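Quick one, probably user error.
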């Protein structure tokens, strides 16, 4: 069914076009001349614009509620240019999901505001000066040049569109996997800024390219955000597939969660309605900070939503128990700032957050530079997740392994984690134990007492401890250095 477009002029002098939906007759609007597709808000029909007509080409899947503060028709300002959010694309990849908001600037051009678990990147289309190679050409961890600017390859993943909403300049086929390559830079070249994210989207031919920089929502001067007082905050609940106890899910973005009754780790990457996979976790490690605790760090209130114990070993001899050490990472959540990590290691406490740009590491790997600060290598090791509790926005699992490097410059910390498909840098700083105790609401005496109990427990079982299968960190007491600065274990690396 075809419909003819009509046009009106809105207050900003930008012309918008509308026509009845071919599926239900409700009005479908186009605010940008570059938009080719739209999803009807009433019947979910996917419509394609061809000249002055609309054609229905299918039906879009329902959006999942990601509890985002953003919504269609939110207005803001970026680089002194006003924009309106008119469309949304929701994608998934192996370890998680993320959202791309289609923004139309007042001059009619398109941009994207990428939202990934509380982190935001504002990007605009980039014309490549040469033909881009196939996705397989980009090796994770390698470097390449795009339009004369050097970038590090941070991620090379197969992704798929799972839902869409509103007006869009293009629309990948629903559910069909395609390659997405992300490159990062901290350079200041002609297309770069302090931190840059360059995305190559192979969902179209030729692949589309965009360049962006990290932003905070407060910087965008947004109006029309979702009213948190009416936002649906009802948690989901299901029965543990191992013991049958009720499991409550508080964060809409969670992909893994542990059962509070039997400590099984449950894979939620396919949603609560899908068949839930689980893994039994023996010998739980008791966190010093209880899940659900709310503490004030760096001027913001953070809630502890996840905990994981990890083990590290010397890559030269991973079988040597004297070269193994353990540490704990607490996943913290703030509704406006997303996620960060509070890390307790043999080096003390630290707070770290994934970087958007890519630090520059020397060829020998002994030094790294990030935003003008030079860091020295302290430790190289292999890391493995050995115990998990709480909720995580990526598909965390016991036994996940990464190759790590920790750098330091005074109290400033920089950490690199690399897996087969992703490289993630995290940056942060050390914290005094008294400051952590005050922020998270526990006393220093209590901490020392718990540490003593843990130490006595480890000593009592050291003779039978097998670090390859248990959560043993007894050998870490023999180290004068080491332990992780923590960071972004795996997943969620998009933007």
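Nope, works fine. Designed sequence:
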């Amino acid at each position: 069914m075809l419909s003819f477009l009509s046009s009106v002029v809105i207050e900003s002098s930008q012309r918008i076009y509308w026509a009845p939906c071919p599926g239900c007759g409700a009005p479908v609007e186009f605010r940008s001349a570059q938009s080719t597709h739209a999803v009807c808000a009433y019947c979910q029909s996917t419509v394609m614009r061809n000249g002055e007509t609309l054609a229905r080409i299918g039906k879009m899947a329902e959006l999942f509620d990601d509890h985002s503060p953003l919504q269609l028709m939110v207005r803001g300002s970026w680089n002194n240019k006003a924009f309106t959010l008119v469309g949304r694309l929701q994608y998934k990849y192996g370890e998680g999901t993320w959202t791309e908001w289609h923004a139309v600037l007042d001059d009619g051009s398109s941009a994207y505001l990428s939202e990934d678990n509380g982190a935001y990147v504002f990007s605009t289309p980039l014309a490549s000066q040469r033909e881009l190679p196939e996705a397989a050409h980009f090796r994770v961890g390698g470097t390449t040049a795009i339009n004369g600017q050097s970038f590090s390859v941070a991620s090379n993943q197969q992704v798929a569109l799972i839902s869409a909403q509103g007006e869009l300049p293009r629309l990948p086929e629903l559910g069909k996997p395609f390659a997405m390559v992300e490159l990062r830079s901290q350079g200041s070249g002609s297309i770069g800024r302090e931190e840059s994210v360059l995305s190559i989207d192979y969902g179209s031919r030729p692949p589309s390219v965009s360049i962006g920089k990290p932003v905070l929502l407060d910087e965008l001067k947004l109006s029309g955000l979702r009213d948190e007082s009416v936002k649906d905050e009802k948690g989901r609940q299901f029965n543990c597939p191992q013991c049958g106890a009720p499991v409550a899910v508080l964060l809409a973005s969670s992909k893994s969660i542990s059962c509070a009754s039997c400590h099984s780790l449950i894979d939620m990457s396919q949603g609560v309605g899908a068949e839930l996979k689980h893994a039994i976790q023996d010998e739980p490690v008791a966190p010093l900070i209880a899940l659900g605790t709310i503490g004030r760090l760096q001027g913001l209130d953070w809630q502890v939503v996840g905990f994981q114990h990890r083990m590290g070993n010397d890559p030269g001899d991973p079988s040597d128990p004297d070269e193994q050490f353990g540490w704990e990472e607490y996943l913290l959540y703030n509704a406006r700032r997303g996620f960060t990590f509070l890390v307790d290691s043999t080096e003390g406490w630290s707070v770290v957050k994934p970087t958007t740009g890519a630090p520059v590491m020397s060829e020998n790997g002994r030094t790294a530079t990030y935003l003008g600060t030079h860091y020295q290598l302290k430790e190289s090791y292999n890391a493995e997740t050995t115990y998990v509790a709480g909720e995580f926005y990526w598909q965390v699992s016991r036994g996940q392994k990464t190759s790590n490097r920790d750098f330091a410059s005074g109290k400033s910390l920089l950490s690199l984690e690399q897996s087969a498909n992703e490289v993630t840098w995290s940056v942060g700083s050390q914290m005094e134990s008294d400051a952590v105790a005050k922020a998270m609401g526990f006393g220093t005496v209590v901490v020392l007492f718990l540490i003593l109990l843990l130490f006595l427990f480890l000593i009592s079982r050291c003779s039978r401890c097998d670090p390859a299968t248990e959560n043993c960190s007894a050998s870490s007491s023999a180290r004068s250095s080491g332990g992780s600065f923590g960071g972004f274990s795996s997943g969620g690396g998009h933007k």
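The chain is about 5% helix and 45% strand.
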